[in-house]
Specification:
This protein is an alpha+beta fold and about 700 residues long. The protein folds into five domains: about 1-150, 2-Layer Sandwich (Beta-Lactamase), CATH 3.30.450; about 155-330, no CATH class; about 345-440, PAS domain (Beta-Lactamase, 2-Layer Sandwich); about 450-525, no CATH class; about 545-690, Heat Shock Protein 90 (2-Layer Sandwich), CATH 3.30.565. The protein is built from 22 helices and 26 strands. Strands 1, 2, 3, 4, 5, 6 and 7 form a seven-stranded antiparallel beta sheet that branches. Strands 10-9-8-13-12-11 form a six-stranded antiparallel beta sheet, with helices on both faces. Strand 11 and strand 12 (about 220-225) form a beta hairpin. The longest helix is centred in the middle third of the chain and has 34 residues, at about 265-300. The protein is elongated, with a radius of gyration of 39 Å.
Amino acid sequence: MVLDAKNYASMPPVAGIIRSMERENLTDPIDGSSVQQWRDRLNQIFVANLLTRPGYFQIRFIGKLDNWKELVRVDQGPGGITIMPSDSLQQKGDRSYLDGVARQNMREPYFSELDQNVDHGKVEDIPTIRIVHPVLAANGEVFGAIVVNANFGILLKEATSSLEDDVAITVLDRNASYMTIANGGTSTLMRLHTSPNWIEPPENKILREAGDARTIVTFDGKIYYVVPPTASEDKRDLSLGFVASIPLDALLTDARERLRHGTGISVLLASVTGLLAYLVGQRITAPLRCMQAEITQHRATNTPIDFPVYSEDEVGKLTKSFADLGNELIRQTARMSAILESTSEGIVTINTEGALCDANRAAVEMFGYPLEELIGAPLNILMPSPEKEAHQSYVEAALRTTVRMDMSPNRLVWAQRKNGTTFPIEVSIGKAVYDGKVHFVGVIYDVTQKNEMFSNQDALIDALKRSNDELDQFAYVASHDLKAPLRVIDNASRWLEEDLEEHLNDDTRESLGLLRNRVQRMERLLDDLLEHSRIGRVSESADLIKGEDLIDELKGLLDIPNGFELQTTDALATVTVPQFPLQTVLLNLISNAFRHHDRPSGHVRVDVNVTDDCYRFIITDDGPGIAPEFHKKIFELFQTLKPRDQLDGSGMGLAMVRKHVDIVGGSIEVNSDGVRGTEFRLTWPRSVDERGVKAA
């Protein structure tokens, strides 16, 4: 279980989930996979492992966030294997088996106490043992844990499959919770010390009185062989004691039969001597027999050989050496098998005759051949012409080199599936020597999607260039051709006013003034449209500016009404920030606050907090506020909260703010109850260069 948990924790989807969840957009910065995609991949790995481990009934990846909530969970029960949907995942922060990683800051794997499983608050009648493997993020902090739940009864039955009918084995933990296997493994009794019907078994008293030494005890008509827990500082030590018992009558049946037939004292002594010799021999060879049973049990599952070796004689040392060697081979095999079977690239091995020796799951799925058909087949069955004819030349070239080489690096290589369809690939070939022979390892990449992506990318770039050209043309028309008629209208209205001065009354003068006001508004609208279209397309200065200088710039550009005040904090005065377009964004937000104020006096306050990744600006005012239903609408084009006749603006200021913020990858949100006061929270990302600039 320890090795399994370690392998699960080192799987690529675990690291992918961590990287994705550390990003605001929940997307892996390395390959663009989402958190859900990584979860789906880890689910499949857990499913594949549960199929080969009948003793496991649950594998989970639990995250530290949200009170240690399950991120990925796969269950195995009588109905088969179930992948838990997101809405069924639970918080586990209050469970005692997480004490080590959640509250004791343990960084190494450990076993939980033997107990019953609890799911959705319901206690299940399953004797449960868990291995908890902490998972660390890139910064070394605990991100979560891999937790594997195993049915202790199944594990114990597998370990005692050859049990004699008269022999019973009882396993006890430090709390005197116990499980007894009897009647050849067909009878099982489990009692937790917390159960209301728990009674201390006689085996616990025998185990307690035995101390730290193995011993044989006769009690109440039975012979008990006691194996006490091993004293160890290892957190993975389960501290389990074992007591094997057999009725004295069953053990001495042969001897009594001989006595009944009058064989005499010599035969009795011989029987007792034989029994003692058997027990001594069993005790001496116990490590070897235990190792043989473990190897037989784990041969097909690639799980580690895990059994205690207490004797310090030559047999014990030999057993431990063989077990260590076997476990190292099992670990290497399991690790390589997990890597090869979970990778998305096809991997094949080939001999010098060009025949396939092995293939991973991805290669089988990629070409559509069953593994049995691939083994021993010539590699060129995976190639169309002319690659098929040129194949042997690649093999000969690979034999002459000692470094990894690419197959036809300067042109597209095509492969052929079993159904005859072809697809583009990239192939990297390396040479390896094992079993005394040279082999080649080929890594195959299906580049169909990659090629389609490049084709789509070129088409999108061309379309973007055309769109930009059209936008430039529109901007030119907006800034020149559309303004010309407006200037004519403005001039004509002034000439009419001069020529008809003596005939004008208050109404006609007001109408002419209204006409010129509409012309000016239209000119401002065209200017704002032009500026909005250029955002993100016209490069801004990358100069940095000190906060105190930025404050002076803002005050110089603002027309602050009498009775109003711009308040700034020391944090803003001492920070160093990029001047543009940040200055434009702040100017828009502050001027809007003054322009839309409904009282003869008031204030606007600007503050900033600096983190490793961004600046967080807070702009607050004591104006009339913005109702919650308009919090999103105000960032749209041409949107105002009052009739346009009452405002001196185009309704595009906040739309330009939103566009600037989106382009740099920041965020902006508004908080207001619509009664009094508004707060804008602006997050502006810091570049790598800016992170090296400290506040003055």
